[in-house]
Amino acid sequence: MSFSAKEAMHQQQADEDHLYAIFFGHASMQPDIEKIYDHLMKLPLEKRYKDVLTKVHASHSRMPKLAMILFALWLCPELKLEKGSNPARSEPFLANIQRACMDMLKGKHLSLQDFVVHTLTDYIVTPKA
């Protein structure tokens, strides 16, 4: 398979799957980050948590923003961040997102990057119909 054919295949997947598109840089994640940030800032969180959210919101780094999206998929289902995603991929992924996030909180991953890469790999290898 040629490079251009492979890129076309990835682009088609991104066009058909919102989460795939933001996870792998085919679409801007900023609208989702804004939605998550606005939602969480309305909650009665401690200042230190709001400070972290503000730092991630203002950051240009992808890893903390991807982690924010992954945790929001679990903790803020009312935001429906998975809307526009391939149900064959997103539904099994969402069924296991709590476990993935809890693994991070329990220290299974040595870094935020390890958590994000491992969890996004789970999204890719989730069985598709």
Question: What do these coordinates show?
Answer:
71% of the residues lie in helices and 0% in strands. By secondary structure, it is mainly alpha-helical. The chain has one domain. It is globular, with a radius of gyration of 15 Å. 22% of the residues are buried.
Set out the fold topology.
Blueprint: H1 3-16, H2 18-23, H3 30-41, H4 47-58, H5 62-75, H6 87-105, H7 112-125
List keywords for this structure.
mainly alpha; globular; 129 residues; 7 helices
- Share of residues in strands: under 5%
Q: Roughly how much helix do the residues carry, as a percent range?
A: over 70%
Distance between the termini: 22 Å
Question: In total, how many domains does the architecture comprise?
Answer: 1
Arithmetic mean pLDDT? 93
The 3D shape can be described as globular
Find the structural class using helix and strand composition: mainly alpha
**N-to-C SSE string, H for helix and E for strand:** HHHHHHH
- The number of helices is 7
For the biggest sheet, the summary is: none
Residue stretches low in confidence (pLDDT < 50, at least 5 long) are: none
Global Rg: 15 Å
Give a count of the beta strands, DSSP E runs of length 2 or more: 0
Short description:
It is built from 7 helices and no strands.
